[in-house]
Amino acid sequence: MKAAAFSFGQFCQAFRTIVRQALEGGGPPRDLSKLRWLYAPNLLSFGYALRTTLSSLIALGIALWWELGSPQWAALTVWMVAQGTRGKSIAKARWHMFGMVVGTICALVLVGSMPQSPLLYIFWLAVGIGGFCFVGTLLPGPATMTNYRIHGMRASGFTYAIIALDGAAAPDQIFHIVMARATYITLGIVVETTISSLFQYRLGLRARNRLATNFVQALDGAVPALVRLIGGDRRAVANSPGVFTTIVGLSDQVEFAEVEMGEHQHEGDHARAALAAIAVLMSRGLDLGALLSMPESQGKEYLQVAGEVASFLQTIPQRLSDELPVAPVLRDLVALRATCTQLAATCLEQEMIAATHPPIDAVQESSLSREGQLLHKLGAILDELQQAIEQFEMSRNPAPHDHFRYPMRSYRDWRMAFNNSLRASVTIFGSGLIWITTGWTDGLTFMMFVSIVCALFSTLEQPALATQAFLHGTIFVVGMSGLLDLWVMAQPTIYETLALCLAVPMLVGGLAFAWPPLILAAVAYNLFLPILIGPMNEGRMDEILYFNTALPLFLAMVFSMWMYRLFLPFDPDGLRWDLRVSILRRLRRLAQHRTAPPMTEIIGRGVDGFVRLSSMTTDDGNTYVRDRYVSGVLSGMTIELNLLRLRVILGRNILPDDARHATQAMMNRMQQFSGRYGGQYGRTARAASLAVEYLSRMEQAETNLSVREEMLRVLASLHVIATELQENQAFFDASSPYLDKAFT
């Protein structure tokens, strides 16, 4: 006893010392920057947390006033729908309502069809949620939590699960269960959208300004890469992954600005087109980078105009962000474009003189040809920049009766959709088997939480990481709810006191959600806090009910995370290989005689693959493989674009027969390009190099100006294809599926 008392006394003394040092400022300084979101949030974050807390408490109060059976679902719906901006909240509310209707109908069909067949019932519940995940994966937009089209399918699976599992216990009461759940969800959506609308001021104007700011932000990221590229850094575009990621992210935000603007004249379509033009601009830079590898190509004229273009590019973001007229910018741009055209024509003229007036200087002729190709590509970059700025201006000042359309593009991955569906179905069916075989009293609650997690996260590319963050939030909310249920919530007897008790924990959850590193953990905290509190008009959440809810919740998170890591886990090598095979397949199809896809689709698929690779996180730390794949994806997009240009040139039928046959021979070789077994890559790369050599000799002997100009276009594309195949052999030589040769 003395030893115990002595130990406790030592503990108290040490604790007093720590507190005194903290108050007096003694000891080493403590880094509290990670808690800044809590004690010093910015105004927007605090405003979001405050209005969402008020909305949740109002929805909860109305549900209690109406004496609904499970009022916590109304507060939960508010936290599911609420977002940082008005456009996001409205878009998510619409799709959540749509998902609720679809899930409700499917749950009614399930309960009415097989109420007395437990195993079959669980099977079709798992298949239904898997089907929602399958459809959600194929919907337009990235597989993120901010894609609210996918959220509609997540809401369908969420509603389908809670109604079907409640109906399994009381199938004769299914109509009342459906009406109750629909009432909770509708109440939460209506309250959240109403309250959030009161916090908005000059919404349409701010949305239009945000569209302009997004374009300037994307251009500001692209300009440094282009300046370095023009200056001779051929890897500048490939070493700037953030540019493409920013373009994709900002393009996804346009639809929310359109929602906020209400009645609009296609400003969003012009904004999407302007951002897409920046992606095309970067792809033109890839062509220029490939041509910079040619020896003796950067002559005096190119270096001079390249310096002028670089200086001009550096001033554009500032000139556009000042809300000044774009006419002076376009005038300067057109003047630079004319200079490039004139210098390219001068190079062609001097090349013709060198080819037709002996003595013929082959070295000078070749140098002039290469410099003309560079000037032509530089002019193409300025063309794309002009289109981007024009679309930007039309998004700021739309013309009346504008009918321009630039819809969102969708690039479906059927294999990923099937894997996501199968993973969700097997996980839910496994939780149902655990419930049936163990006879666990709270197994139904366990299965409901597993179904919710699968509906929310199975459409993500890395659901195991998302579930791990969700588990962290679950552990925290279990502790917070235990404190509230077992101590605080035993005291209040009226709703006003209950609201005061819940206000601070909910406000903390809202602040955490507004801090990007804590989003997923905050989602778990905000969703499960009302469930674990379980407010009721008569009674309260006692310790037995609390533990019987918290334990299934925790075990459901652990089981889901374990299943995501065990069954069809995230395989970065497999995903990279699938992307690689897809690129090689597109190269073969593009070289064949079939309908060619538009240039925007080629660039869109390339950028989508680039962003997926850049955001792919692994624990192996192998940056070599990742960099080779990133470079290969950009190289594949560059080759696709040049194959498309060659098809256009061959369709014009201006080339001489010998040049046409040489170009077509390379295209025929590309039609068989699989990259497998080593020889496939070697023959294709050799065919491209031979075509370049053959057309270079023909171009030097050609005396017809128009034909020579056409041959220069072909040579430029062939140079780019041959250079990309040579410099990215590790990617295109697919005899090594996962770039294993890099480790030997």
Helix and strand layout, with pairings?
Elements lengths: L1 H23 L11 H4 L3 H23 L6 H10 L4 H28 L4 H21 L9 H22 L4 H24 L5 H28 L10 H21 L5 H25 L8 H22 L5 H30 L5 H35 L17 H25 L4 H15 L5 H26 L6 H19 L5 H15 L9 H24 L5 H20 L7 H17 L7 H30 L4 H15 L7 H23 L3 H23 L1 H4 L12
Tell me about this structure.
This protein is mainly α and 744 residues long. 77% of the residues lie in helices and 0% in strands. The protein contains 27 helices and no strands. The chain has helices spanning 2-24, 36-39, 43-65, 72-81, 86-113, 118-138, 148-169, 174-197, 203-230, 241-261, 267-291, 300-321, 327-356, 362-396, 414-438, 443-457, 463-488, 495-513, 519-533, 543-566, 572-591, 599-615, 623-652, 657-671, 679-701, 705-727, 729-732. Helix 4 packs across helix 8 (174-197) and helix 6 runs antiparallel to helix 15 (414-438). It is elongated, with a radius of gyration of 31 Å. The N and C termini lie far apart (65 Å). Mean pLDDT is 83; it is low at 1-8. The chain crosses the membrane at residues 46-66, 95-113, 119-139, 182-201, 417-437, 443-460, 469-490, 510-533, 545-564. Pfam families: FUSC. Keywords: Membrane, Transmembrane, Transmembrane helix.
β-strand number: 0
Q: Low-confidence runs (pLDDT<50, min 5 residues)?
A: 1-8
Order of helices and strands: HHHHHHHHHHHHHHHHHHHHHHHHHHH
| Structural class determined from secondary elements | mainly alpha
Distance between the termini: 65 Å
Residues in helix, % = over 70%
| Major pleated sheet | none
Strand content: under 5%
> Cα-atom Rg, whole angstroms?
31 Å
Please report the number of helical segments. Answer: 27
Q: What is the global morphology?
A: elongated
Averaged pLDDT? 83
